[in-house]
Amino acid sequence: MMGLDFSGALATVVTDGQIALHASMVAIGAFDGVHRGHQQLIGTMVAEARAAALPSVVWTFDPPPKVVFGRATLLSPLAERLAKIARLGPDHIVVASFTAAYAARSAERFIADLARIGPRRIHVGADFRFGARQTGDVALLRRHFEVAVASPVVCAGGEAISSSRIRALRAAG
Q1: Which of 14, 44, 123, 146 gets the highest tally of CB atoms within 10 A of its CB?
Q2: What does the alpha-carbon distance between residue 23 and residue 20 come to, in Å, rounded to a whole number?
């Protein structure tokens, strides 16, 4: 466990096995790039946690799953992602080491891991998937927890901001 201080924002960074909370508000995602959509999702969760006087938790993965599976290139290294996330004000940042063994875990095991932090509400993107072969989805998560699905954030041109779109724009120069 370590505390990272970025411009006045203090977040405790832990692995997924190092945290247990009675109750919390949680945002889950790869958050590669920590773009405006990610910032809105995390910011909404942090504000909700503060209003409810609960710890705020950002649960992320390193490396991002799409990178591990060869479907994407890394947008930003872990240290950069942690700094950007910490500036958004969460109390805790959970970094799950996304290995082949982690990817092979069942959706139910991921749900059991989340239960250790007592989520009152979990904030995710609409396309959030988890568990071996991505068998877990928002519908399954909703069977166990209250879930808030973030609305897409769009750019001035009206297109949704996403890590995939940022990768495509980078590739196009």
Answers
A1: 123
A2: 9
Dist CA 122 CA 148 (whole Å)? 6
132: which DSSP letter? G
Contact 45, 124 (CB under 8 A): no
Per residue in 12-42, pLDDT (tens digit) is 999 999 999 999 999 999 998 888 889 999 9
Q: Which two tokens stand for residue 161?
A: 């901001």
Distance between CA atoms of residues 91 and 9, nearest Å: 9
How far lies 30's CA from each of 15, 22, 97, 98, in Å? 14, 24, 11, 10
CA angle in degrees (0–180, nearest 5) for 82-33-167:
155
Helices (H), the chain: 36-51, 65-68, 78-87, 100-103, 107-115, 138-142, 163-171
- Residues 116 and 3: their CA atoms lie apart, in Å, by 20
Check: CB of residue 155 under 8 Å from CB of residue 59.
Answer: no
Total-model pTM: 0.87
Structure tokens at 36: 């405006």
Q: Distance of CA 140 to CAs 15, 145, 150, Å?
A: 24, 9, 17
Residue type, 133: R
